[in-house]
Amino acid sequence: MSFPTVTIFGVPISKMNMSQTLEYLTKVIQERRPHQVITANPIMIMAALQDPAYMRMMKQAELIVPDGAGVVWAAGYVGNPVQERVAGYDLLHELMKTGQHRGWRVYLVGASSEVIEAAADRLNQLYPELKLVGFRDGFFGEKEDSDVIRAIRETEPDILLVGRSAATQEPWIAQHKEELGVPVVMGIGGSFDVLSGKLKRAPSLFQKLRLEWFYRLLQEPWRYKRMLVLPKFAMKVIREKENVQKP
After folding, report:
1. Is beta strand 184-187 parallel, antiparallel or unpaired with respect to 159-163?
2. What is the pLDDT averaged over residues 23-42?
3. What's the rounded Cα separation, in Å, for the pair 185 and 170?
4. Triad 29, 192, 109: Cα angle to 5°
5. At 180, is the secondary structure helix, strand, or coil?
6. Strand 131-136 relative to strand 63-66, pairing
7. What are phi and psi of 184, to 5 degrees?
8. How far is Cα 191 from Cα 187, in angstroms, rounded to an integer?
9. How many C-beta atoms surround the C-beta of residue 225 within 10 A?
10. Between β-strands 11-14 and 5-8, what pairing exists: parallel, antiparallel or unpaired?
11. What angle do CA 90, 60, 72 make, to 5 degrees?
12. Which of 52, 85, 90 is nearest to 71 (CA)?
């Protein structure tokens, strides 16, 4: 199954809107082919430019959606716009909403034990018919990988949501995707924190103004160093406009 993309500094970003993305992932689940879904933002693209291994991993992912407002802006700025922003948090909810009616099985991995348990409870409240088949925290190392993978495989999920640190989330999924054998494996960053109530999602006004990053910074000031990458990304797109879409 193919879909239109726009390349941003070597990273292929899906141009599908939310409903098309959901339709695509529904087919993926029906066909049972392991898919890594990356919810891309400018910080990840800049990380890929600094790290060849991270770039290879992103290029090998089956689907990269335009999660960050900066990615949506960049595509429009170079004249090859995406249809709309496909925020990972919203895609998560669309998958759960569809999944509870289709009998999809869901497994959660990430965050602390308290946060992941609260996130699981919240999903059960929102989607009472959802088959939430398991969850566990994201604090484990390489020595525990095989046990974690075995536990996941035993529940035969259709969707695996992974919320770990930026350095381990996508690379871990890429490394173990085939072994996991789950049709949709999606990195969701801090979404478990929002689901659990630990963090609040930005109000709609901040979302419309593309200032979700600023709202998150207000809640987590320690993230400021990561946020400094955002203006660097914007300046790079402006300065290198003619080269942005080169493979």
Report:
1. parallel
2. 96
3. 10
4. 55
5. helix
6. unpaired
7. -120, 110
8. 9
9. 7
10. antiparallel
11. 40
12. 85
pTM for the whole structure: 0.92
Crossing angle of helices 169-180 and 52-60, rounded to 10°: 40
Q: Is the dihedral of CA 120, 121, 126, 128 positive or negative?
A: positive
- Residue 68 is encoded by which pair of tokens? 């960050």
Which among 104, 102, 136 has a CA at the least distance from the CA of 119? 136
Where do we find the tokens 């996941």?
152
Judge whether 119 and 108 are in contact, CB under 8 Å.
Answer: yes
74 has pLDDT over 60: yes
**227, pLDDT greater than 90:** no
- How far from chain centre, in Å, is Cα 9? 19
211 CB-contact burial (10 Å; exposed 0-12 / middle 13-18 / buried 19+): middle
Does 209 score more than 60 pLDDT? Answer: no
